[in-house]
């Protein structure tokens, strides 16, 4: 329960406050809802995803008016935010790691055209390889984007800095977008006691009720403007100079704003957080959450007679170079810990900026030691902090730094522990059963497929080994393995980021028996296109003859968990080029691997963590994307939908898919699979739920072969069609749709299903549709 803390805090400032017990992500969302931004464009990525989730939950309950826009990827979300900023309102976003890098080219545009906004960077390791835990490798990419950057070492700072950041961004002397950086999982998910403004009005009084008058924007008809013009020299250098001056001005403005905030709340965030630095002879410089841990080490060293101190900035853009040089004057040696490397730069970004600051401001005496630590979310303990001090103490005593740059916390490789093959490669003779035949019909141009009963293929080896980490009842692998039963011979598989990828690969283990590739979430189709073309070109040149390949590989890209949202552009590009490969989408109707956020494949009215159900919102507010029809419109030779509820149908389509992918061009297939964890359904009901989705005509089974549509299972003709509501009642995520207050959404959903089904039947009846 929130409490009035004015008495508890004593001299706590002049404004009424409350206590909450929340995480860093919750406090970012809490500050945003108090500010009541106009727009948030977002795309889910761990560990920042919860920010949008919490805001959506509050939105469903009517606690704010922010328009939450789920983008097709982080690049799109950055575009949404830029457009909204150009429209003159207040804009908010949150992202992490690869998501930030995906939007990176938009960041200098936002700052270079001087449109304010606030974005939370919940810091996480940048791939590759893939790691979802916290370090600063994404933060360091932000240093050259022209955004002021403030830092948050705990959930309290996340809340406070989000409020300070907006006022800083909108100050007429700054007028730049501001980045609020906190540590992924260390701060984002750590629950702490936090003091907040008790009333939204007090927040708005501090930041101002709306963006300042006089800021040009795109929605003023009486003062039209040109946003982002082409610009030549000398105008471009002048623009950059003005932006640079605004950035440096941000330090002075920040210092003024933080003093105003301190007077209101009793909490102060000076440009530098200095701990026992008054007479320090050795020091450690760290950012964010580690900077709190190091204070305990300082106390321990002080108790043993060592004059130790700690220094940590609350602002790193602009970099407080003069203040750092002054703080280190009299310090014999300082260890700078970087939670990311600047490869080839003999240290991370912070150590090189500290060195430059000392040189520029006349401090040539302090010795500087660089250590890279805590990468990939590696924990930072007091013992690690003590080791960082030992490096400084040793340098101070000897008067020289014996090893200026190194990593701390890594383990030297041991050849004896190199990963060894556990599973032997599958035998070609087992994979090529000869029981499946595909022959072209010369008259029609279509394929005649003969598949045996499923039991005849049970001896065919599974291409994914047991022992993966999927949730109980997950439909991904039963669906994939059924599809793979219809593929003869060797495959090369690329898995986009998603549940299927995450639960089958965890170094040094892999559940994949065939060659497996993973690349960035959005870029799978382009990546596999490159592999396909390299195979055929190397084969043409005779460079693969020594491998003794009996047949060509079948190249298969597995996507799901929203991969055909963020990856749709590259997928369409691959389709238009008609590479000989298969894209198979498992559709679980959400971004399940990041916490069950809505995907464009999520149907209207369905509950997800970013389409909550409450008094102001009844699940997802727009219809699901018909991916199969989108891909069919690219004129690739074969498109199909399938379901493990109709196994023989899926086997036939897999065999067709292989023939087309090896002989003609690209194939796209979509299978609906169950996700009991996030559908809120019983593990044992998965097959029944999928079967009812088919029989309700929500997920019709059909194929589009050389542009001609053929429904391969018609529940109406079989007398098996069921009402959509019967299917929806089987899942907790859709049970609310049976309530009277959501009747209109249900009718809308039913109407759309009927429209799409009738359109499909019309295409089935006419080869010209």
UniProtKB/TrEMBL annotation:
Q: Which residues form the Pyruvate:ferredoxin oxidoreductase core domain?
A: 280-384
List the SUPFAM superfamilies hit by this protein, alphabetically.
Thiamin diphosphate-binding fold (THDP-binding) (SSF52518), TK C-terminal domain-like (SSF52922)
Report any Pfam family annotated for this entry.
POR_N
Q: Where is the Pyruvate flavodoxin/ferredoxin oxidoreductase pyrimidine binding domain?
A: 31-257
Gene Ontology terms describing biological process: response to oxidative stress
Q: Which Gene3D superfamilies match?
A: 3.40.50.920, 3.40.50.970
Ranges for domain Thiamine pyrophosphate enzyme TPP-binding come to: 551-657
Source taxon at top rank? Bacteria
**What CDD domains does the database record attribute to this sequence?**
TPP_PYR_PFOR_IOR-alpha_like (cd07034)
Recorded GO molecular functions are:
4 iron, 4 sulfur cluster binding; oxidoreductase activity; thiamine pyrophosphate binding
Q: Does the keyword Transit peptide apply?
A: no
List keywords of the entry alphabetically.
Answer: 4Fe-4S, Electron transport, Iron, Iron-sulfur, Metal-binding, Oxidoreductase, Pyruvate, Transport
Q: Does the keyword Repressor apply?
A: no
Q: Which family does it belong to?
A: Belongs to the pyruvate:ferredoxin/flavodoxin oxidoreductase family.
Write the protein's name: Pyruvate synthase
């Amino acid at each position: 329960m929130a409490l009035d803390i004015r008495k508890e805090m004593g001299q706590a400032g002049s404004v009424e406050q409350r206590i909450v017990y929340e995480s860093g992500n919750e406090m970012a969302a809490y500050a945003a809802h108090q500010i009541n931004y106009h727009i948030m464009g977002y795309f889910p990525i761990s560990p920042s995803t919860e920010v949008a989730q919490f805001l959506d939950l509050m939105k469903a309950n009517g606690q704010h008016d922010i328009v939450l826009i789920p983008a097709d990827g982080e690049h799109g979300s950055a575009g949404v935010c830029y457009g909204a900023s150009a429209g003159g309102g207040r804009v908010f976003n949150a992202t992490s790691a690869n998501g930030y890098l995906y939007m990176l080219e938009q960041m200098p545009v936002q700052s270079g055209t001087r449109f304010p906004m606030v974005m939370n960077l919940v810091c996480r390791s940048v791939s590759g390889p893939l790691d979802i835990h916290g370090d600063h490798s994404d933060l360091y990419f932000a240093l050259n984007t022209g955004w002021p950057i403030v830092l948050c070492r705990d959930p309290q700072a996340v809340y406070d800095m989000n409020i300070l950041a907006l006022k800083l961004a909108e100050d007429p002397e700054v007028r730049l977008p501001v980045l609020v950086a906190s540590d992924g999982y260390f701060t984002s998910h750590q629950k702490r006691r936090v003091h907040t403004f008790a009333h939204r009005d007090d927040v708005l009084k501090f930041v101002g009720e709306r963006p300042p008058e006089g800021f040009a924007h795109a929605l003023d008809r009486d003062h039209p403007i040109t946003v982002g013009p082409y610009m030549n020299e000398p105008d471009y250098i002048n623009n950059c100079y003005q932006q640079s001056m605004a950035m440096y001005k941000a330090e002075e403005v920040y210092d003024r704003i933080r003093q105003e905030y301190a007077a209101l709340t009793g909490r102060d965030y000076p440009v530098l957080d200095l701990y026992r630095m008054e007479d320090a002879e050795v020091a450690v410089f760290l950012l964010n959450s580690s900077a709190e841990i190091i204070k305990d080490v300082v106390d321990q060293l002080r108790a043993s007679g060592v004059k130790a101190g700690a220094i940590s900035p609350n602002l790193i853009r602009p970099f407080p170079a003069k203040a750092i040089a002054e703080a280190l004057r009299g310090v014999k040696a300082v260890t700078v810990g970087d939670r990311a490397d600047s490869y080839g730069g003999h240290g991370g970004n912070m150590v090189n900026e500290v060195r430059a600051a000392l040189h520029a401001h006349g401090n040539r005496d302090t010795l500087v030691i660089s250590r890279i630590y805590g990468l990939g979310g590696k924990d930072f303990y007091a013992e690690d902090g003590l080791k960082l001090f030992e490096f400084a103490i040793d340098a101070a005593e000897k008067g020289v730094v014996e090893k200026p740059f190194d990593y701390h916390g890594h383990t030297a490789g041991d050849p004896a522990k190199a990963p060894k093959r556990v599973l032997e490669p599958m035998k070609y003779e087992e994979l090529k059963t000869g029981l499946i035949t595909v022959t072209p019909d010369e008259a029609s141009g279509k394929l005649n497929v003969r598949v045996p009963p499923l039991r005849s293929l049970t001896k065919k080896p599974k291409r994914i080994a047991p022992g993966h980490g999927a949730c109980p009842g997950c439909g991904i692998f039963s669906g994939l393995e059924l599809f793979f039963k219809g593929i003869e011979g060797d495959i090369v598989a690329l898995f986009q980021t998603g549940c299927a990828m995450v639960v089958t690969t965890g170094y040094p283990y892999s559940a994949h028996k065939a060659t497996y590739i993973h690349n960035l979430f959005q870029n799978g189709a382009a990546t596999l296109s490159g592999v396909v073309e390299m195979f055929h070109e190397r084969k043409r040149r005779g460079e693969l003859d020594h491998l003794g390949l009996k047949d060509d590989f079948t190249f298969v890209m597995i996507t799901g968990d929203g991969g055909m949202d963020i990856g749709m552009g590259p997928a369409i590009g691959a389709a238009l080029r008609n590479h000989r490969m298969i894209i198979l989408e498992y559709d679980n109707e959400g971004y399940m691997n990041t916490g069950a956020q809505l995907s464009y494949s999520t149907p209207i009215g369905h509950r997800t963590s970013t389409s909550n159900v409450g008094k102001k919102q009844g699940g997802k507010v727009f219809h699901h994307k018909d991916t199969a029809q989108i891909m069919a419109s690219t004129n690739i030779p074969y498109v199909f939908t399938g379901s493990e509820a109709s196994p023989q149908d899926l086997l036939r389509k897999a065999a067709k898919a292989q023939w087309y992918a090896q002989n003609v061009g690209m194939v796209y297939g979509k299978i609906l699979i169950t996700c009991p964890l996030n559908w809120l359904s019983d593990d044992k009901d998965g097959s029944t739920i999928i079967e009812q989705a088919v029989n309700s005509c929500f997920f019709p089974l059909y194929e589009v072969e050389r542009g001609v549509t053929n429904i391969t299972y018609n529940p109406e003709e079989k007398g098996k069609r069921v009402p959509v509501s019967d299917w929806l009642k089987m899942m907790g995520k859709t049970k609310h749709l049976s309530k009277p207050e959501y009747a209109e959404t249900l009718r809308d959903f039913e109407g759309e299903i009927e429209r799409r089904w009738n359109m499909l039947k019309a295409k089935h009846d006419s080869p010209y549709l």
